[in-house]
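Q: Got a minute? One more chain.
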Amino acid sequence: MRVTTMSWIDLIGYAASASVLATFCMNTMVPLRVVAICSNILFAIFGALAHVYPVLLLHVILLPVNGVRLRQAILRQRKRGPAPGSMRPLEGCARQGKGGGGTALTAEGEAISALPAQREEKAACSRASERVKSRRSRDTKQLLGG
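A: Always. Here it is, folded:
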């Protein structure tokens, strides 16, 4: 019985295959394209080292395609803003302080005049919270066909 050992070229091929599998597990486009680009690079290296030129050619062609699509997805994501149901509008509303239970504290030595600004920030957070709730409600209705 002949025992063969796995070469580092084989390991690159398996890593490339695993990255393709990972792309099928992605839910959003930007991470999918990033992993696909990694897959293209690994497969191109594997194809070149293992002298499998059709694999090399395919992934050399797919690499810029995935790069362009990644750029488009990022630009589209920036244009649209946060995804439905995202908590991003609430960023900045949570404060760390020494008090518990959501108590907003002024920093030691902070002028009491900062309190009106805190009230305005609290109002902005409240408005952001209402937008998130409204968006979630609308998204839920759409999912349920209502």
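A: The chain has a mean pLDDT of 78.
Q: Perfect, thanks.
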